[in-house]
Design goal:
Blueprint (H helix, E strand, L loop, with lengths): L9 H7 L24 E4 L19 H9 L1 H10 L8 H7 L3 E4 L2 E2 L2 E2 L16 E5 L24 H6 L4 E5 L2 H4 L5 E3 L3 E2 L6 H13 L8 E3 L6 H6 L5 H5 L3 H9 L12 E4 L7 H7 L8
Parallel strand pairs: 1-2, 1-10, 6-7, 8-9, 9-10
Antiparallel strand pairs: 2-5, 3-4, 5-6
Helix pairs in contact: 2-3, 10-11
């Protein structure tokens, strides 16, 4: 954890309490027969940022200005980029123990390269964004092959179906050229990204996306705030964590208002930053109880 932005004491509480570690298997058995895209599933945005530090190299794909600043003033540039890049304090195991079942994985994060490499299928580059959606119940993580017509409106597998086949992990990938070569890869899962520093603007965006109708399969509503250059320059002593944590209560209130299911305004995966800082994971999981009221 060295070199990372300091985290609030609320994260330490999570490491002692893993009440949501096995939440899928403890759901009401009726919910084991609900398609995955109709369940409420907690996820983490930019899962791997916990491992970024001051030695993380800035990508050559970043702007020329940023690369020049990094070359001329690395002791100033990298700490600034770092503190606005870290979105998670818990490592992958801790996030899974907390109940997260959607992992947003990428080696290249906000201009920095992660030091933790991702295992890849043969011939699949790891630089493209990918995600894992897990339905763990027993040791091991066999992959679920993608459905033949995953882009159409159709019923996706249920937890019971996946478990009966010994399948526990779905891998989605955004590079379409790789999908045809690897039956294990699912198409990229749509991610609703508000790209704003303001909580109310983010929630208006999410409500607008809901009003347009849900995608046919798995999809993610991102409750993560995003800084811009103007905000960073106006708040030189702050960080993404300092910007986000005070807004978590309002974001969590929105989460608790959501409803999973097949309806056009229903949500599916909900992803957030700084897992463990509040009740986010438990709030997302608790939404599944609404499916039992129907």
């Amino acid at each position: 954890m060295g070199g990372q932005v300091s985290t609030s004491s609320s994260f330490s509480n999570l490491r002692c309490r893993n009440a949501n570690e096995d939440w899928m298997s403890t759901l009401c058995p009726r919910l084991w027969d609900v398609p995955l895209h109709h369940l409420s599933i907690p996820g983490s945005h930019d899962t791997m940022t916990y491992c970024l530090n001051k030695k993380s190299p800035i990508s050559h794909e970043e702007s020329r200005l940023l690369q020049l600043l990094n070359k001329a003033f690395p002791c100033i540039t990298r700490p600034i980029v770092l503190k606005w890049s870290i979105t998670q304090a818990l490592d992958v195991t801790e996030q899974l123990d907390a109940g997260v079942r959607y992992l947003d994985l990428r080696n290249f994060i906000f201009g920095l390269y992660s030091h933790v490499g991702l295992s890849s299928l043969s011939g699949v580059p790891t630089s493209r964004p990918s995600s894992l959606l897990g339905a763990p119940r027993v040791p091991g993580s066999p992959l679920s092959p993608a459905p033949l017509n995953s882009g159409a409106l159709q019923e996706l597998p249920t937890l019971r179906q996946l478990w009966s086949r010994g399948q526990q992990v779905i891998v989605s990938y955004e590079d379409e050229s790789s999908l045809g070569r690897h039956c294990e890869l699912w198409p990229g899962i749509p991610y609703w990204w508000g790209n704003t520093v303001k909580t109310e603007a983010l929630l208006r965006y999410l409500e607008t996306m809901k009003s347009c109708g849900r995608p046919g399969g798995l999809f993610v509503a991102g409750t993560n705030l995003t800084e811009n250059l103007q905000y960073v320059l106006a708040h030189p002593s702050e960080s993404l964590e300092k910007m986000t944590l005070p807004n978590l209560p309002r974001l969590s209130a929105w989460v608790r208002e959501q409803r999973p299911g097949p309806g056009s305004r229903c949500t599916n995966v909900i992803a957030g930053d700084f897992i463990g800082a509040d009740s986010f994971v438990g709030d997302v999981i608790a939404l599944n109880q609404k499916l039992l009221w129907c």
